[in-house]
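Subject: complex prediction, re-run

Hi both,

The earlier run crashed halfway through, so I resubmitted it with identical inputs.
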Amino acid sequence: MKFRKINCAVMFLLLSISIQSNANTLPADLSWENNNNAKPWASPLATKGGKFTDFILTFPPTLRTVGPDSNSSFRSYINANQLGLTDFHPNTLEIIPQIATEWAYGQDGKTVFYKLDPSARWSDGNPVTADDFLFTLDFMRSKHINAPWYNNHYTNEITSVKKFGDHTISITGRVAKPKEELHYYYGLVPTPKHFYKKIDKNWVKKYNWKIIPNTGPYQISKIKKGKRITFERKSDWWAADRPLNKNRFNVDKVILKVIRDTNIAYKHFEKGELDSYALVLPEFWHNKAKGKLYDNGYLEKFTFYNNSPRSSSGWFLNTDNSILKEKPVRIALAHALNFDKVIKTVLRGDYERLQAFHTGYGEFSNKNISARKFDLKAANKILDEAGWQQRGGDGVRISNGQRLSLNLVYGRKEHSDRWSILKQDALKAGIEINLRLQDSSSHYKTIMQKQHQIASLGWSTGFRPAFWQHFHSENAHKPQTNNITNLDNKNIDKDIEAYRAETDSNKRVKLANALAQQIHDSAVFIPSFKVPYTRGAHWRWLKFPDAPGTKTSSTLYSPFGDGGIFWVDSKTKIETKAARKNSTKYSSVNKTFDQYRENTSD
Amino acid sequence: MQGYFTQRLLLTIPTFIGITLLVFTLTRLVPGGPIERMLAEAQLSSGETASSAEGFGSQSLSEDQLDQLKAYYGFDKPIITSYLEWLWKVLQLDLGESTRYGESVWDSIIERLPVSIFYGVTTMILTYLICIPLGIFKALKHGAPFDHASSAFIFISYAIPGYVIGIACVSFFAANLEWFPLGGFVSDEFEELTLWEKIKDLLHHAFLPLIAYMAGSLAVMTFMMKNALMENLSADYIRTATAKGLSFSSAIKKHALRNSLIPLATHFGQNISVILSGSFLIEKIFNIDGIGLLGYEALVERDYPVVMGILVISAVLYLIGNILSDICVAWADPRIRFGEAK
Amino acid sequence: MLTPQAKKRWIKFKALKRGYYSFILITVLIFLSLFAELIASNRPVVIHYNGELHFPTYGDILPGTSFGYDYQWEVNYKDLQKQFNLEDKGNWLIMPVIPFNPLESDFIEGEYPPYAPSIESKHYLGTDMAGRDITSRLIYGFRIAILFSLFLLAVTYIIGVFIGALMGYLGGTFDLVFQRLIEVLSNIPILYVIMIVASIVTPDFWTLVLLLAAFSWMGLTWYMRTETYRENSREYVMAARAIGASHSRIIFKHILPNSVSILVTFFPFSVVSGITSLTSLDYLGFGLPAPTPSWGELLQQGTANLEYQWIAISAVAALSFVLTLVTFIGEAIREAFDPKKYSYYE
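This time it finished cleanly. Structure:
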């Protein structure tokens, strides 16, 4: 749950704001907070130096972080080196300082005041000032960046940014929110005003491959198009001595190689050309990560249970469909799907059943809800009672001449095996499921046009459960909205509206829990799987603190962001390479870390 | 003859328009264009791991904003208007800009051209170098054990798709035995090498991909050569020549061989466009940044300007190739007169 | 009945042992695959239950209730067999050689798929990643692939021969227009078209046959056109025309029969390309929808999981075996149809 960077605009507007804002004066009654005592999560044993090589599947289409095609996976590498005002502690989720050293809350419940670190510097040596934050707003509102979501967010959600001298600002959002959410939704990332100067209609093209000054520990030093991108550690990074940054960001160079095939990339890893390899997929973990390299201890395996919001993945049932509009059919279908069998077989017992739409949101998740269990008797009984008692010669139920045959659209070839196993058992309940694989773009289009019967997909996670977009009737029965089940229920609508308007955390939690129950009762979503861990293998020269990750780590091998806690032991590296040549053995390592493991019963 | 070629040259124009118009229309019919891709990326969880997202995917865009996106990607006009605009640009040698990489399509293609040409041309030369002698030898030894054994071998290599051979080669020779690098066109430190080392490095990287490329074409060419030669060997004029006392080997050299090369020459022209397109699967496996891979990625990512750009080049090459193969045939066999048959 | 010429060719074909035996073998394989349900299926070939015989292979499912179980869905024949053996009441059933259907995931308690080949578990070639029997999938996959290529061949031949003959026979503008059309069609990236179709409807067997046919009839057309040109100028055609034979009669009675040799020699190679196309499409995931048994899909699984060698080896071996057989037939046909006898020089 990283505090995501929300980057940067029109010149004339900027001028007017800054002239006006110079006249601003701070409210007198602010109580400043700093959380300087937050506990570090790095290890004092860490040493600096060496390089870390990882791979990416495609070369990024652009280095911009906003605008067309900027939403590639590579953006996270750039964003991780562009600090925000504050961040969340990866273990405790408290607010921790970044560019801001102190913060305070306004009376209106929607304003936060920040004091900036005067020593903060851009990678080109220029100081980071309040103007860079004001510029962010202009930048993000500019039509020229061709990023309508950003335009919307920075226009509708963030009302104003004010300057109180060079190193103090305030940000005001549209509505009052609980404190931590103010930071999450209204926090800003500075945009180097001195660098961009002016945003015009050529911006998208002009900045495609420009390296933008940043404030984080690393900066891109070399780009070989289509092949590799190298980041280099800043030797005199301004925030290096902060307690939370000490012993982190240890390697001198981070190299990202483009390797287009995961199998081939794994071969590179085995050759020692990559330092680590994430092995979340069961096929990889169980099939590939074994053999001499592991037995001899050259490669070490780590499984780390994390605890953060889980992607809402599963089957979405379109209630506008003539068969699925009957709730008994939806409930029976949920009982006819043997997800546990899939987990126990092709997923090798690694994944867990997802129980509800929102899980991993702490108390915002309703832990009393569990997904409907595979139960053929129940499924058959419900269908018999719902008027589907007649079966055809092929065992599929029929009602009024209509077969109980449903199409499942999905966008990933790798999932075919999972769904064919479910299909076999569903037939026992008299339900035929036809698998319809589509390539990912058309899959998304089908769903957005609401042309599916059943759609398999996973929504990305947020900071807090989001109900309105997925379940409010305002988004039902029309294309291009996220209510893909077309759920249309007045009671649910009412609660969603209340949840959105509520600023008191406790009341919101209650509403969220109640909503989760109602959504479960409506049976429009059949939860599939969650991955409760992150895991991988690395060469033994990669060293980690006792806890190799944090509660919210999505990978152990992130060199940036709230990661960067591992280091490369150059002596071990030489030693290991020699040992490989003459087959010296070390003890094999396969560790599991479950200090943050969720209680599996929830 | 000259008239014939002029006519053929003129006829390439409607063909070219036909090809590009058809594909251009198709790009408009595809569900899920660049705009959908952009919307999807903003909202869906991409991997199996818990991922965090920006949290403002929840907002839907206004009509105005969607129109702005449509205009950015050039989807705001009727098909025929945008086709004509596109065609006009192509005539000025401007292939437009990639919607994904935002850079000129020309540049993307030219960047990858050397790699594709290297593999295409080398594969072709090597295939001819192996197939012609092998075909001749097999024709002369028709029915002998060597003929059978090599046929079986060639058929099997023909039956297994090139990409499968590629994967097998990488896992065995590159990963297990470590004889060859795992992929790439050249080493990372290529620029620092001496010329001799550069050549060695290039060949070291190219060896396995070339095997995968050649596996398929080997069979076709070898049998084409063998059949053609056998046909010619049984022709009357060879009998006459040998009857007149010309030794068999010089009969082959003087007459049969030359005539047998005609079908290969026909093939040559048609191969030109294939040279460039390569096989995206082989390129993917060996991590070679060629035109084939560019085209496939563009298709999957709905990067239409690149798709169209590659199509223009391959169509032009195909059309030129067809004419070239006529010229080749005419050159190899002076008896053939085009355009007079009617 | 066979014409004397055809008979001569058949005798010559038979004399070419490699091609002839391949032909017999493949015919037997195709024939057997048509009855694949009797060879590889989870349904028994015959059941003897309480004095009655059942043949469940074809037709409706037999629900559990018809054998005294309490469930409505198809009876689990493996359980039934165990129960029969246990009760020893004179009930019996005979399972096919391969007691798995190609869509069925068979899981072994305490082990994860894929399972290695084993005679004991009756997975003679092992299972794939989802626990489905590879032998069974190969058999059904073969049936689909070979039928696919035969139908594809039929459609392409009908279109190709018809248009080719007309182009050669009529010449002129018709010829010119179709030449351009062929050029246009041969330049359309077929994968692209299939991706587009796949995104609108999930392609089924017939959609794929028609789609591929629409883009592969052109190859034959060229040969047919040249052949017709040549035949057209022969004396017998001129004679037929002189006595007032109609166009269709000339084409169907005179030109086509004389072009048959060229058509037949292309036959096996079209089959090969049909099988290869379907396999590649399945490999890329644009072919028949999962979980249809398919060689391409098996190949994809095999290459992605090289550690489980039996998957890739089975797929590659089956593919190269069948393609090699067909190619051998092709070579023999070509030789049998060749009017010139080869000369050998020592």
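Chain B has two domains: 9-91, 111-332.

- K.
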